[in-house]
Amino acid sequence: MLLTDLIGYCAATLTTASFVPQAWHTFHTRDVRGISLGMYSAFTVGVLCWTVYGLLMDAWPIVVANCITLVLALAILVMKLRYHQA
Amino acid sequence: MLLTDLIGYCAATLTTASFVPQAWHTFHTRDVRGISLGMYSAFTVGVLCWTVYGLLMDAWPIVVANCITLVLALAILVMKLRYHQA
User: Fold this and answer.
1) CATH class as words, domain A2-85
2) Could you give the residue ranges of the DSSP H alpha helices within chain B?
3) Which one of A21, A67, A86, B70 is most buried, by most CB atoms within 10 A?
4) pLDDT at A84
5) Could you say which DSSP state residue A18 is in?
6) What percentage of chain B carries pLDDT values higher than 70?
C-alpha cells in the first residue's frame, strides 16, 4: 500500500510540476507558434473540471494538485493568446 | 453523485483528449522550438506513474485514460527530440 501511495504522489508531483518548465520556456522565449491553442483551451477547462470534481468529492489532494496545474495552464493559455497577436 | 461522476468524466476526457490537437499541431508544423523538453520529459514519466498507480489500485478508468495520454505525450516528446535536431 505504501508503494502505491508513493507512486501516486510521484505521479501527481511530476504531472503538476511539468507545466513549470513549459510556462517558464514560453515566458522566456515568447515563442508560442509550436503551442496548440486547442490543447491549452481543452486542458484548462479539463483541469477546472478536476478541481470542481475534487471539491465535490472532498478530495483535497485532487483540489490542490489541480489548482496549481490550473494556474500554470491558464498562464500558458494567456501567453499563447497574447504573444500570438504580437 | 451523478453530477460528480459526470464532471469527473468530462475532466478525464478533456485533459486526455487535449493532447490530440498538440500532437497533430506538432506533427503538421514540425515547429518544436516553443515546446519545453523539460515539460514533456517530466509529464511522460508522470503519466507512466499514473498508469502504474492505476494498475496497482485496479482502477481501470485511471489506467485507460493515462495509457491514451501516455501514447500522445510520448509522441510529442519523440517529435521534440527528432525535429529539434533536424
Assistant:
1) mainly alpha
2) 2-17, 19-29, 37-57, 60-85
3) B70
4) 85
5) T
6) 98
> pLDDT by residue (tens digit) across A2-39?
899 999 999 999 999 999 999 999 999 999 999 999 99
Per residue in A53-76, pLDDT (tens digit) is: 999 999 988 899 999 999 999 999
Structure-derived torsion over alpha carbons of residues A75, A76, A82, A83, reported in degrees to the nearest 10: 140
Chain B residues lying within 8 Å of A50, measured CB to CB: 8, 11, 15
Which pLDDT score, from 0 to 100, does residue A61 have? 87
> How close, in Å, is residue A25 to chain B by CA atoms?
6
Nearest to A34 among B20, B35, B45 (CB): B35
Say whether residue B39 is in contact with chain A using an 8 A CB cutoff.
yes
Asked if pLDDT for residue B17 goes beyond 90, the answer is yes
- Minimal-distance CA residue of chain B relative to A84: B34
Nearest in space to B48 (alpha carbons), one of B9, B15, B74, B18: B74
Instruction: Check pLDDT > 90 for residue B61.
Output: no
Alpha helices in A1-86 (DSSP H): 2-17, 19-29, 37-57, 60-85
Question: Where are the domains positioned within chain A?
Answer: 2-85
**CB distance A14–B49 less than 8 Å?**
yes
Chain B: residue whose CA lies nearest to A33: B34
